[in-house]
Design a protein that fits this description.
4% helix, eight-stranded antiparallel β-barrel, 1 helix, mainly beta
Length: 105
Amino acid sequence: MHDFVGRWRITWMENWDQDYVDLEESGYFEFDKKGLGKFVFGSVRGWIDVRVSSRRPFLEFSWQGMSEGDDLCGRGWFEFPTPDSGEGELFIHCSDDSKIRIERQ
């Protein structure tokens, strides 16, 4: 089974350039052993609830968070073509969505 635990750097987002992704700090996703985690990109901060597939290196998550004082929520997923890289999509409820790539830190 794939080990998702740890911090993963956001290396690319389809809808936002890297300067925005790293606006307040380097953009990242972080997953813990309890199936929870967090992420940061630009002015967006989110807390995630993760579900991991036992059949392939894939995870789905729901999230809630905020950006510039506004509450946000959504969902997303990642698949992992290698143990150190992931590709997926992040959805903001009733707003934007973006394809995304991450690499293990």
